[in-house]
Each structure stands twice: as C-alpha cells, then as structure tokens.
Specification:
By secondary structure, this protein is of the alpha/beta class. It contains 11 helices and 15 strands. Helix 5 crosses helix 6 and helix 6 crosses helix 7. The chain is globular. The structure holds adenosine-5'-diphosphate and magnesium ion. The site of adenosine-5'-diphosphate has 14 residues, from helix 2.
C-alpha cells in the first residue's frame, strides 16, 4: 500500500477525484464486535430487521468523515457496552491513492484520530477528504421541529465544507456559556457590566462570522434546492429557504452585522440579566422553509415534508461537489422504501456518479438499479450473514 508522504500532498492529489470508501473495520463499536467489510465503489445495500446494526454502520462511516456522530455527543455511548474501548477504521481511495482513517475511543478519555498513521492534534485538523451526506427518517424533524434542528443542519453542513466554521462555533458557544453563567451569578453589578462588555465584543465578532457563513451557505442551498424541488414536484412547487435572524443582516456587510448585533446585545442586557440567558444572536436563529411562499412548517403535508428534506439533502450533495470538486458518499438510512417512484427515479439518477450506502428493513426492488454496480449485504445482530 503506498500511502502519501504528507497529508498536504495527499490533499492535493485527492482534490477533484471522488473519494470512495474501500473498506470499514469496526471493533467493539456499538453492537459490532469485529467487522471487516469491503464496500462497492457505487451502490451498497444493507438489509436487516430492526435493531440489527444498520444505522450503527452508517454512523461509523459518518464519524470517519466528520469526527463525530450524528446521533450523540457522548463518545462513550458508542463503545460496546461490555468493552472499554472501540476502534473504527476506514480505508478510502481516489484513483489509486489510498488513505487510512482510524479512530480510537476509550472510556473517559478524548478520542484519538489518525490519518495515515499520523495522529491529529485536534479535530480542527480533521481533513479526511471524505465527505458524507446522510438522509434518515430523523431528518423529517428538519421541517416540523423547532429552530434547533435547522440550526444543527446548517452547522453540520457548513462544518464539513469549512472546518474553521466548527472552530468558530465551538468558541462562540463557550463564550455564550460564560456570559450566561455571569448573567445568572450574583456578582457585584459594576463587575458584571465590565465583564459583559468584554463578552459582548467577543460574541459580536465570532457571531458575525457565523451569521455570514450561514447566509452564504443558505443562499446556495436555496438556489440549488429550488431547482431540484421543482423537478421532484414536476414543476408544481417552488421551494425557498430564508435565513431568519434577530440580528439585522438584510442590507448588511460584516461591519453592519457586527454593529447591529452589538447594539441588540446592549438593548437586551437588562432583559438578559432578568432571564439569566442571552436572548439575541445566531444561537437563536432559524431557517424559514417556504413552499409557494407559504410557511412549510405549519402547512406542509408528510409527503411534502419528505420531498423538501430530499431536495435539501440532494442540494447539499451538489454544494459539496461544487466546493470540493468531488461527490460525497451518500448515506440513506431507511428512507428509500418510503419514497414514491418519481422520487426514486430522481435519486437513482443522482446516484450514478456517487458511492451510496443504503439501508432497508425490506428487500429493495432493484429494477431501477439494473445498470448500477452494486453489492448487497444482510446484517443480523452486528454480523454479516
Ligand atoms: N454501545 C452499545 N453497545 C452494544 N450495543 C449497542 C450499543 N449501542 C447500540 N447498541 C445496539 O445496537 C442496536 C441498534 O442498532 P441500529 O443500528 O440502530 O439498528 P437498525 O438496524 O435498526 O438501524 C440495538 O440492539 C442496540 O441495543
Ligand atoms: Mg436504523
């Protein structure tokens, strides 16, 4: 195996070529004791009854790409209940180049990540080259649930394209927590005011970066998903996505947004002190999802919601392709059999240049995939049959 000499070298070589997962190795990861699996470069279908490990497998792929789970923030949940440590590895390749991503999780210790045997100092460095987009039944929450779901979607999507975004977000959340603790404390008023001034300046600066990144991403997402959604609904529905913020950004450049954010923090300060938390800022923002200019959150039917989410996810795929020059691996968890024929056809067309990992509880009708190279696996109790 000829691994790269340096990560920079490999990043350069890998740009533009699709990065596919060649194999996955799992040890003591959730309900897998020891799994070694070779994946197809195109389509992979995992079939199994409930609670056999299908979503776990997708989760392991997601962790290799992003460094974190989409299901939990607590790494120890991921380690097999009867074991002390877990290991996940993915061998990925583009053309004939290879890269080995390894993650080791130990109880009560931070996880360790290696790429081509070189340990990363922190998650910020995780530039695995591997990108993923996942679509699961949980994503239906994106339309109907509270703003937190939609912010989370923005945050995870942007972080993948722009790792510094995750870094900014973590810093923002840390400062926000300190500010909120201060608001709740019984310190002397003059001291509180002095400290709040400092926190506000920091929040203003980083918060503005977050807002700007989200607006940019959402503009692209809205444009692309409008087109995809129009196709999926045979021209009947116009999907638009709008960033909603309590900070005024409409006519805004960076300075304008920062000034407005600082102004609002000042205006709200007495209320914040009373409530013991911070009422304005990107941590309160939202996306408005409209279908034909009507708010989808209140009016969209189940079927419409599913199509909206599908449009948003497929457009995320395209944004990654535009930004990185290569397609992400598409993970479809239990959603395929729920889609009608029109949407399946559309998905299948999008598949042809991508590696996909699909799970299903039922045998999938494969006539749409006749021309796609594929492997089918059966999973039972953390083992391949
Ligand atoms: N840390 C863990 N240790 C052992 N088993 C786990 C762990 N976390 C989850 N499981 C088991 O994994 C199974 C669920 O796997 P999942 O991939 O969600 O199933 P599905 O095939 O329905 O997608 C359950 O049986 C659950 O008990
Ligand atoms: Mg599942």
């Amino acid at each position: 195996m000829n691994y790269f000499k340096t990560l920079e070298e490999s990043s350069y070589i890998l740009r533009g070529a699709n990065l596919n997962i060649e194999s996955i190795r799992l040890i003591n990861f959730r309900n897998y004791n020891n799994l070694n699996i070779e994946l197809n470069d195109k389509m992979n279908i995992f079939i199994g009854k409930n609670a056999q490990g299908k979503t776990n497998l997708l989760e392991s792929i997601y962790i290799c790409a992003t460094g974190k789970s989409f299901r939990t923030n607590r790494d120890r949940e991921i380690i097999n209940l009867n074991k002390e440590e877990a290991y996940i590895a993915a061998k990925v390749h583009a053309n004939r180049m290879q890269r080995l991503i390894e993650i080791k999780m130990e109880k009560n210790k931070p996880k360790r990540i290696k790429i081509n045997k070189i340990e990363l100092k922190n998650l910020k460095e995780l530039n695995s080259g591997l990108n993923v987009v996942i679509f699961s039944p949980d994503d239906m929450k994106l339309v109907k649930d509270g703003p937190g779901e939609r912010r989370n979607f923005l945050d995870t999507s942007i972080s993948q394209i722009k790792p510094v975004y995750r870094y900014n977000l973590n810093r923002y959340n840390k400062i926000l927590l300190q500010r909120n603790n201060l608001l709740k404390s019984n310190k002397q008023k003059s001291n509180v005011v002095k400290l709040l001034d400092i926190f506000d300046l920091q929040l203003g600066k980083i918060g503005t970066e977050i807002i700007i990144s989200r607006i940019k991403f959402l503009e692209k997402l809205s444009r692309i998903s409008e087109r995809i959604h129009k196709n999926l609904t045979l021209g009947n529905e116009r999907l638009t996505l709008e960033y909603i913020s309590n900070v005024n950004f409409i006519q805004g450049n960076r300075d304008y947004i920062e000034r407005d954010f600082l102004k609002k923090l000042k205006l709200n300060r007495d209320k914040d002190l009373m409530m013991g938390n911070t009422g304005v800022g990107p941590h309160r923002d939202d996306i408005r999802i409209n279908i034909n200019d009507i708010d989808a959150r209140t009016y969209a039917s189940q079927g419409q919601q599913r199509t909206i989410v599908l449009s948003m996810k497929l457009s995320e795929v395209e944004i990654i392709k535009l930004d990185k020059g290569s397609y992400p691996v598409l993970l479809l968890d239990d959603v395929f059999s729920e889609l009608d024929e029109e949407r399946r056809k559309h998905l299948t067309m999008s598949f042809k240049d991508m590696q996909t990992v699909i799970t299903s509880t039922d045998i999938i009708d494969l006539k749409e995939f006749e021309n796609i190279d594929k492997s089918i696996f059966y999973i039972k109790n953390g083992k391949l049959l």
